[in-house]
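Continuing the batch. This is chain 6 of the set; chains 1 through 5 are on the previous pages. Same settings as before, nothing changed between runs. Recording input and output for traceability.
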Amino acid sequence: MAAKETITIDATYSPSTAELDVGLIYADGSFHYFTATGGRVSKTILMAEAGTYTLAFRNNASYKVKVSGSVNY
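Output for chain 6:
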């Protein structure tokens, strides 16, 4: 990604009672995230600097969660 490009995440997950940490893993291994609740993820992230990133979803629930949606960049 180049600096000032955006990544838009639009997804749903179930069960909606779960909380997910959604974000990007940077090249140094750090995870920068926001917490999604209520079964929906809708977020646009502006890239501060150029680099290679990995999109990640961390399930904070004690049960399986199914996620589906799209990512545009």
